[in-house]
Amino acid sequence: MKVKQTLLAAIAATVMAAPSMYADTPDATAPAAAGSTSTNSSDAMTALFGDPVVASGTGVQVKRSELDQVVTGFKSAYEARGQAIPPEQLTRLEAQMLERLIDIQLLLQNANDADKAVGTKKANESIAALLDKSGGSQQTLDMQLKAAGTTEGELRTKVTQEATAMAALQRELGVAVTDDEVKKFYADHPSDFEVPEMAHVRHILFMTIDPTTRQPLSDDAVKAKRKQADDVLARARSGEDFAKLAEQYSDDTTTRDKGGELPAFPHGQMVAEFDAAAFSLTNNQISDIVTTMYGYHIIKLLDMTPAKTLGLNDTLPSSDTAVADKTTVADKIKDYLVSQKTEQLAVPYMEKLKKAANVKILDPDLSDAADALAKAMADTNNVPSVPPTEK
Question: Residue 51: how many CA atoms within 13 Å on its side-chain side?
Fold first, then answer.
């Protein structure tokens, strides 16, 4: 959904991605592939070289391990999408993440009870949304977070801290958005609120690859999977309960316990063969055997939702009722505009806080990168250049 891509910050931004604390961030909630060695490598480096403090000040202390954890989360999100961060950009990324951690610690010192309440609320919503994206399966969410080198408790703490810090910053800056500004943004960006056609299906998967190694099964095993798929398809078309067949035979552990049901999805979200088959079906129709890189699928269409444009007071579509009932398009536009205004005012304000707290970046390379970053942000936001962070 375009409105989500445009207005929603990454749910797990604290550990996975965010070039700036104050800017809207790309979706980077995809976990690292199972077996990723990034976290283990960081632990090994800490064991070898200790855990030095890389930034300090009044009420501020950031250790190398804390910085490494955030950077590793960011890199893991890229790796999960088959991408990599160029080595020449790594120091800049580390400087961005370090500035983020410093800013959070400074702002938390000024947070009041209302700011903390906002932080807790945002964290609850974020975890609920992340669970929703995991198909409502707590087990799946736990596995994804483990692959990304974290736990739900750790993620909740970090999201709470960041949301609390952001609430404190917005209060300190006096950032506000009027109803007229919300309406104008909505009117000026009609395409951002288009919800595409959505398919809602059940499926049964017969995997032809090893779920751990991702290597193809033997020819005999693949032939056996195909025969099993043909047999189950015949039973489904003869009238047997599709959900029960999925519970019994599907190799998709994420959806098997829910009768193979997937959350509704738009064109382009699934692999091409699955996507084409799903959107070619009519309600309650069962597909032929569909072959993808994962194996053989049988798909049953439950319903198709036509494309539409959301109104200002419409709630954001979600399979998680608790999230959907509380979040309207107007709410998300307001959050986005508040973030934009905050981004413009934050740089000089945070530099004042750092100076007052005598914040020093102790690593020379990170200090140089942070100075360059501060100058670039000042130029981008069209504000006077501020003195570099003290080395």
Answer: 13
360 forms beta bridges with: 56, 390
The answer to whether 307 and 194 are in contact (CB under 8 A) is: yes
* Domain termination site, one of 306, 339, 360: 306
DSSP per-residue codes, 24-50: ------PPPPTT--HHHHHHHHHHHH-
The residue among 306, 334, 366 that closes a domain is 306
Q: pLDDT digits over 310-364, tens only?
A: 999 998 765 444 444 577 999 999 989 988 888 888 888 998 999 999 999 998 9
Residues 297 and 319 in one domain: no
Q: Dump pLDDT digits (tens) for 68-92.
A: 888 887 777 677 667 788 888 888 8
Cβ atoms of 177 and 186 closer than 8 Å: no
Distance from C-alpha of 137 to C-alpha of 2, rounded to nearest angstrom: 25
- Could you list the residue range(s) of the whole structural domain that residue 257 is in? 197-306
Tell me the pLDDT tens digit for each residue of 232-252. Answer: 999 999 999 999 999 999 999
88 and 153 share one domain: yes
Rounded-to-integer distance, Cα 238 and Cα 90, Å: 57
Number of domains, the chain: 2
25 and 18 in contact (C-beta within 8 Å)?
yes
Which pTM value belongs to this model? Answer: 0.59
| 3-state SS class at 363 | coil
Q: Check whether residue 51 and residue 169 sit in a common domain.
A: yes
Three-state DSSP at 115 gives helix
